[in-house]
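Write out this protein's structure.
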Amino acid sequence: MDIKSIYYERLKEERRKKGWTQKEAAEKIGISRSYLSDIENGRTLPSGRLFLGINEVLPIFLLTNDADRVRCSRDGN
């Protein structure tokens, strides 16, 4: 399974865990339901900016705190 397929599956899984419909999740992300469907079903890959926006609503790979922890560990804090 490639990284794209993993992303699509995890996105759908996280949305379902929250009990959201595609419409509800799309509204929270700020995109159309049909566009979210295209992403979840592997028909399109979101841009970098949208990827980060989706991750804020449905954290899949990088939690906001993770970036802070990585930076702090590199700074020795």
